[in-house]
Amino acid sequence: MPHPETPPTNTPLSLSTLAIRRAIGTLMLTISVIVLGVFVISRMPVDLLPSITYPRIGLRVDAPGVVPSVAVNDITRPLEEAMAATEGVEQIFSQTREGRISLDLFFQPGDNIDRALNDATASLNRVQDQLPETVGVPRLFKFDPSQLPVYELALTSDSLSLLDLRLFADEELTRELTRVSGVANVDVSGGVREEVQVNLDIDRLQAVGLDVSDVIDTLGDRNQDTAGGFIRGGEAESLARVAGQFESANDIHQLPLTIDRPAIATPSTPGATTPGITSITTDARIPLSDIATIRDGTQEQRIFVALNGVPAVKVSIQKQPDANSIAVVDGVKAKLDDLRREGLIADDMMIQVMLDESEFIRSSVADVAQAGLLGATLAGIVVLLFLGSLRQTVVIVLAIPLATLTAMLLMGLFGLSLNVFSLGGLALGVGIVVDNTIVMLEAIATEDPDEFDPLEAIDDPQRDPSPIAPSPIAPTPQSIQARAEARSRDLESALLASTTTNLVAVLPFLLLGGFISLLFNELILTISFAVAASLPIALTVVPALAVRLLSIRRSSGFSCWWPIRAFRLGLAAVTETYRRLLALFLRFRLVTIGFTTALLLTTSLWMAGQLPQEILPQISNGQASLFAQFPPGTPLEDNRRVMAEIDRQLLAEPETSSVFSTSGGALFASITSANALRGSSTVNFKPDTNVAAFVDRLSVSLPENIPPHRNNNSDLSGACTWSHSQ
In whole angstroms, what is the distance from residue 118 CA to residue 126 CA? Predict the structure, then answer.
């Protein structure tokens, strides 16, 4: 007959039993999970929201100088007919404005948007030859938040002209910032660009027998480099090219134009077999400067960008889809500091940050992470108060981060990112981790009635074992291990069933369609990973660690500490009060059920109507935008005057830190839209500013203080609307 302290050898082996008996192996696996989890976390992308690709494709075409009524027939309808052939398209929404045609293609949520984009590109290529030559190059793109800028700058300089500032941003700054790891694209907008204008003299052009198309064809044919093939000489050969591109405006001055002179009739030469008249056609060449005025200048500026009323240039940085937003922005900031130290950025050049997604992401993610850590800490405190044991609390506190690392390891394997939704899912999963851990730990730590533990007598002096009672057997490490193996083995099926039930309650939300599924899929997956990770932790690490800690014969006497004793006394009083109330409620069952149902039903219905309904909570990023729409026929100069007055009044407000404005169009990421009827101002606020109150106050006072500019009896103060990020 085996000794009662020796674990039986014929007991069935289970996962928890294997973890207890192979504690070193369990420790090694735990360390491996910790190392892999930390490694995955260091490489996971960090964003504000999950990676979302909307089931929508956009098409934008610039048509400067084209009347909307003409653009509908010549541009919009051919594009609609061509885009309708895109596979899977559900709806096409078009909008035709002065100078801009917009088409949006909508698809079913869950469709392969990359494949749809390729199909739409093929449809666009088939119709592009039917569009007028005056339209710009069509831009086709998918709606993906990862393509939005993560960092935007406004450049101003006292020493550089607006042209030189734009050249610096295009040539120097763009080249340097593109080299930063994770940067996908750098777009520059605002300012003015160089332009060589060829102003033809129509009278001279007609006098030499040429027309405008001849000049355009000659300019296009001559302004190009072509391959010259191979040049072989002796035993060597080299590639050659014909350099024909214009290098300066002087090359355009000297561009030769061929003129066909009329035929000249001359007598046939003596001795000809057939006497008669011979026609001779001669060609002459004249430089382009004889019939045109060439001016090396700048483009006509139709969009004006200003920072605090000073002309500026805007630089937008986009990151690669799988890059870490915070790392990309930090790299851009470091590069700008290096360029400043190297002297590439002049000392008098002012760089104003207009958008910094890293600060907003860092703040939001830190808030969610702080809430999760606070929840885990409170869970540990509550467990400590209820259990009154430091050893058991240590087991639970260690299980929470271990399960979190396991869940984050699964997140990395499935390509998820760290954002407010995934971190929120981890915070929600902490509750499940604590539940499974407490159930397993309580089963192992609870002693048999016939066992006597001297440590318990030390922790609880009120325990008075009767001398008449038979002397129980004091627990030993072997008996604790045997008890842990038996009880953990009995709990395996119960924990598996409860964890599976929690997963079944969560996973069906992945079947939701539409925008909600795109936004909340990562939240559901993260909760599922946290719930799934809690099961192996509760079945392996918790019993193995509990056996080692509970086998220690020393006691801290923590349960004798007066706060713990006071809490136990208070809990006992609450339990007794609940017992009496429960007896009273059971005596009047029908009244209790009816009153409780009526109370909960009425209050819940009343509160449901009071709660705001929104997909995302209101979050302020310290910015507000004003959009101005002017009446038709408003000249660009009047647009500029009104927007300058708006900026002056915004800068006069004490809450304003800086104002970035555009007149004559709109700038959105890499898209520049010229429109004399539109203007906008983006206000950056000082810290701790109530953005909503500012917007409400200025919405009333700003239109009243704008002096009216009249043109064709139209009020040019504009229809101003506010928007602040929420």
Answer: 13
Residues 6+ positions from 680 with CB-CB distance below 8 Å = 625, 626, 627, 628, 661, 662, 666
Cβ count near 493 (within 10 Å)? 10
The answer to whether the pTM exceeds 0.85 is no
Other C-beta atoms closer than 10 Å to the C-beta of 591 total 10
Residue (of 326, 295, 297, 106) closest to 192 by Cα position: 297
450 CB neighbour count, 10 Å cutoff: 10
How many angstroms separate the Cα of 252 from the Cα of each of 142, 209, 292?
40, 20, 10
Strand partners, 198: 294
Q: Tokens standing for 349?
A: 């050049």
Quick count: other Cβ atoms within 10 Å of Cβ 707? 9
Mapped onto helix, strand or coil, the DSSP state of residue 229 is: strand
CB count in 10 Å sphere of residue 667: 20
Q: How far is CA 137 from CA 124, 129, 133, 222, 669, in A?
A: 11, 12, 10, 22, 17
Helix (H) or strand (E) holding 661: strand 656-668
Instruction: For 437-595, list the strands marked E by DSSP.
Output: none
Predicted pLDDT at 558? 66
Alpha carbons within 13 A on the beta-carbon side of 428: 18
624 with 695: CB under 8 angstroms?
yes
Tokens of 569: 């006394």
- pLDDT tens track for 280-312: 455 677 888 888 888 887 777 788 888 888 888
Of 637-651, 673-687, 702-716, the range with the lowest mean pLDDT is: 702-716
CA dihedral 189→195→199→205, nearest 10 degrees, is -120
Helix (H, G, I), strand (E, B) or coil at 668: strand
The region of weakest confidence among 236-245, 320-329, 370-379 is 236-245
**Dihedral of alpha carbons 503, 509, 510, 516, sign:** negative
Q: Which residue type sits at 600?
A: L
| Rounded CA separation 681/623 (Å) | 10
Query: Using an 8 Å Cβ cutoff, are 417 and 51 in contact?
Result: yes
Angle at 333 (CA atoms; ends 328, 335), nearest 5 degrees? 95
- Could you tell me the two tokens for 55? 């089931």
Which residues, in sequence order, are CB contacts of 17 under 8 Å at separation 6+?
11, 485, 488, 489
What are 535's two structure tokens? 């099961």
With CA atoms as reference, report the closest residue to 182 among 21, 290, 325: 325
**Angstrom distance (rounded) from CA 418 to CA 412:** 9
Distance (Å, whole) CA 284 – CA 208: 10
The rounded distance, in Å, linking the Cα atoms of 630 and 211 is 40
The percentage of the chain sitting over the pLDDT mark of 90, rounded to a whole number, equals 3
CB 642 within 8 A of CB 717: yes
Question: Is the distance from CB of 198 to CB of 288 less than 8 angstroms?
Answer: yes
Give yes or no for residue 464 having a pLDDT over 50.
no
For the ranges 174-178, 374-378, 628-632, the maximum mean pLDDT occurs at 174-178
Residue keyed to tokens 């090694």: 28
- How many helices (H) and strands (E) the chain has is answered by 22, 24
Q: List pLDDT tens digits, range 522-531.
A: 888 888 898 8
Q: Shortest CA distance to 401 belongs to which of 373, 422, 366? A: 373
Q: What is the DSSP code (8-state) at residue 171?
A: I
Is 344:172 a contact under the CB 8 Å cutoff? yes
Q: How many CA atoms lie within 13 A of 195 on its CB side?
A: 10
- Beta-bridge partners for 626: 681, 722
| The residue type at 409 | L
Cβ contact 530:425 at 8 Å: yes
